[in-house]
Amino acid sequence: MLIASRAVSAHLLQVIKEINDTIAQMGSKNPKEQDRLHRAAQALRNYGTQLKILPSVKAASIEKDNDADESLLSITRGLGNVLAEAIFTMDTVKITVLKLKR
Fold it and tell me: Across the chain, which distance is largest between two alpha carbons, in Å?
């Protein structure tokens, strides 16, 4: 679990870099979408940090901790939602604002 959570965090950093690159390409076009992407990047960064910390704490714990399990599930669901929104927004921006082809 520790290795997987660190790998996911590393991949999230790549997604965040792509989001930031997309924001830079936008310039001053569509500030509403830029704000959505900034917020998504920040949320992804936070989830990535939580994904590194919580499994480490869980692994170090001797006792079975249902709260930690529920926290991991909650983080995973939230991460999935934010990631889906970020990908949708980036796709929309690339097609409509930046006029890039798929």
Answer: 54
Predicted local distance difference test score (pLDDT) of residue 94: 92
């590194």: which residue's tokens?
52
Within 10 angstroms of residue 85's Cβ, the number of other Cβ atoms is 15
For residue 100, the Cα-to-chain-centroid distance in whole angstroms is 23
DSSP-derived secondary structure for 39-50: HHHHHHHHHHHH
Sign of the alpha-carbon dihedral angle for 13, 10, 92, 33: negative
Which pLDDT tens digit goes with each residue over 24-55? 999 998 999 999 999 999 999 999 999 999 88
- Residue 14 CB neighbour total at 10 angstroms: 9
- pTM for the model: 0.90
